[in-house]
């Protein structure tokens, strides 16, 4: 499908505090921004009002808008605040507690009192029925259909509005789940039903349970919301498609969003990721990293070769925001984001060992790092360093947006050794803008363990891939994309036999046969070597999950026109006295809306716009490009500063390190990253070796040691 | 073994063998035994003699992690030709030779291959003699050498990362940084110890590894900013069964709970442990002399932490927890129709002990930090069918704060193919109820049984047995112990009791036996349950 060449398109993003609107005018390649406080009791209220106001700014009506693209934190908030519907779970006899047992893992080895999120479905609403599949999809115990009906009756009578159905090994054979769903739907057409083999047909009973129950939990809410929103928009004369942004950076139809609302969990940040890629592309940059900072947290997203990486799962509702394992594992594709606390983690760590003597602070509630005075950005930088430290984004350009992003991006980049920063126009509504370049897309997964060697069951693999493709195309078809226009990407999660860590490897588009194996193995070898180490010769490979992503065409967006149409007479608004690392400076303040392509500004400087402020240091400079981006070139880098030199005595060196608590915390946390990295290498290298000959293994080990 | 079980730990140490950083998720006691192994290796191969390409190895239980399966690999890290630090990995390898019947071993010679401090590589040159010896003396030598290879690879990566880190800061050695971070961590620990009133705190705990109870007294002496843990009175080392815990392993299990109690959020390094001294009489089960058999030392060492919590409960009631039901790893192995060997491990946890601030968590792996086994994954690897994996009602020990529930796992062979399947069923905590703190009751006990499909008892595995399954009619039932309660159950809020009843965590009979019956309308006398943070 190509989008109708109509003039006006709208993106809007319902965030926790604000709802952001972007109106794109294809004729002038310009955008109009608008913002309104979110109305949590009914988010559609602010959305509809704000939309009215936005259109009024350009004196157009709803009927003039060709498409509306929408992202929302509604799903996230419902999961975090537990404001979804009462959910019941129907599951295999003997396994109702899987949802609550989780991984049984203490994610912090020193915390005796590790806390976990409450299960999404409480134990009294988790019912078991007789049925059982084996790992290879054979029926071990037939489905007790009467028991399914009784369970549904019981759950309905207990007030459940949604029912999740999760049976063991349903990824291998969904028949029991589908039949059970049919029974529940027939008996209770008003209940929302989520079926694990539809939501995420992937091996791993705990994660599949959580994901399916979370989907059921938000389904009624999203259904009501989307229905109302659509009715209201139609009532106002909007006749085009309304589409929803999902976490992996694509759009889906309303129907698909209603079926799988859990896929919308990170729709806002995904929009930010797409916007980053867009800004980068327009500025001729393929490798960029975003620094998207709001009130209390910042997010970073790495765009490599124009594309954000999509991860197969995320953790929601963490008890400890930055601690892996403390949240609910949600298996749904999501643009990979690195969340960076605004100094919260670092401040706590410094305090614990008694280094921090200054206050006041409270990591969770303060409105960002501004309260830390002139060193305010440093804790954020600490955390940024901590999470990005080993990724080495030095050759990347940083794109700063969000309310606080432009103010801190330059400093963060400086510490990370990044030398150029882009502050795009419309930086306050980047996510909503990102929605407008998203293609319609749907990714689906199914687990099947297949060793990819001569004689593998190609028919089984091909029919699985075909069914995933058909399902994806069905979702695109719902949104009006014709089969011929769809781009299909197929991949497999592969690993060495015996290993636990898998890597996504692209598969050819045609039906697989034995002749394809060398190329697939080579692709795996390359990906594996890039991430870990060269797999040893003779290693056996297997696929565990197959994925198919189906996508429509990508919309193009030109951003050559004005952003927000500012036309102030004077570029300079005044000056302010500011402190920088280099000393005190009288610093000129510029009006961003008055700056034009080709303008150059030498630092120090402050560039103000309505929703954010950009600050550059004395050695930095800015050039305004044709897209009205502020292109900052950093003069001084702080990254490779020698803190301890060979000439210093031990006492001097110790004093030097202790003099800068935050610098020490950065150093300490970066040093501490070494050991988890080692663990990862160990876990990956450790495999079940076949008797393929010790010599190969051994020669490899000798090579490793010789390289040391 | 499978990497997912996380039965290994990685560390970065300074050139004196003092820990600077360790992997955050690992077997916690590995983190504490590894530096001891490193120092022993440095005694054998002094730092100034080490060269790039050297890789050191040992599995001596008295120098490393307490039994032969745990091998330490240590690699010196150089920068500009100077030794700057050491990378260490210790992990459990899949086999180490010796008897499979550990309960009958009388000397370490029967428990497998001993590797004294040696060089696995000498300036990049492999020690072929040692390698051939390892390969010949363990089952599935390729696999074991593969495990060792992965440790070497981890150290190599660590050395690279360390080099990059030092390059970023223009650092030529780690001395000053080590002094600062270890010093700060030590200070934080000493401050925390000082907050505990000086005194001599005592407790005794029992275990039941062989069907006969053994008692372990402990004295925890808090003096100013230092703590001495003294196991005086520990029984003599056992002549048979591999239950002896070397002093290294004892010290690790004695100091780990102190770190958890006192400075849980300070990153671990050597400084955290400097204020602690651990003593155990020589020749005792907690400090056995060579060549005692030691292979099953977890069955002893795992009882030290709860005993220390109990000892310190009077001095720091808010920092301790009652006895936690212990984890079990059941090995399942055999050969399929094609004669191919299969094996996997069912790893499951018991109920956590209650604590002043909250009920114990139900099903939590302790004292490891590994994740449990996915049933779907396990069933795709070995031909078993799991019939049930659920919380066991009433297994959480009664208390003001209830112990977490233990769990019951039942499984059988998937096919009636006539092939034998072997399962190691070693429940920990059989017939050995351990009371909770401040009047809390013991959690439900552990057990291992084999039953017929009709529920008839075919075999009681007692405190441990290797079970042979030949038909789908034999069902293994493994019960994990529940956590002990904390505080007098009479003080438990009526709301909490009502909620436990509604959720089926306790039965009406259990409630009648241990708790005040809810006589007031729910909510009026309610004590606030700890709320979950959703931030």
Helix and strand arrangement:
The complex is a heterodimer of chains A (708) and B (535).
Chain A: E1 8-14, E2 18-25, E3 30-37, H1 43-57, E4 65-72, H2 74-81, E5 87-92, H3 98-101, E6 126-129, E7 132-133, E8 139-141, H4 145-157, E9 162-166, H5 175-187, E10 192-195, H6 196-199, H7 205-235, E11 242-245, E12 251-252, H8 254-259, H9 267-282, E13 288-293, E14 297-304, E15 307-308, E16 310-311, E17 314-316, E18 328-330, E19 334-335, E20 338-341, H10 344-352, H11 377-388, E21 397-401, H12 405-416, E22 420-423, H13 430-435, E23 441-451, H14 458-478, E24 487-496, E25 503-507, H15 517-531, E26 541-551, E27 572-580, E28 583-591, E29 600-602, E30 605-608, E31 613-616, E32 621-624, E33 630-633, H16 650-658, H17 661-672, H18 674-685, H19 694-707
Parallel strand pairs in A: 1-4, 4-11, 5-6, 5-9, 9-10, 13-21, 21-22, 28-30
Antiparallel strand pairs in A: 1-2, 2-3, 7-8, 11-12, 13-14, 14-15, 14-20, 16-19, 17-18, 22-33, 23-26, 24-25, 24-26, 27-28, 29-32, 30-31, 32-33
Chain B: E1 8-14, E2 19-22, H1 28-44, E3 55-58, E4 70-79, E5 82-92, E6 118-122, E7 125-126, H2 128-137, H3 141-168, H4 175-194, E8 199-207, E9 214-223, E10 226-230, H5 247-262, E11 276-279, H6 298-301, H7 304-312, E12 328-335, E13 341-348, H8 375-381, E14 384-391, E15 407-413, E16 421-425, E17 447-451, E18 457-460, E19 465-469, E20 475-479, H9 494-502, H10 508-514
Parallel strand pairs in B: 10-11
Antiparallel strand pairs in B: 1-2, 1-5, 3-4, 3-6, 4-5, 6-7, 8-9, 9-10, 12-13, 12-16, 14-15, 15-20, 16-19, 17-18, 17-20
Helix pairs in contact in B: 1-5, 2-3, 5-7
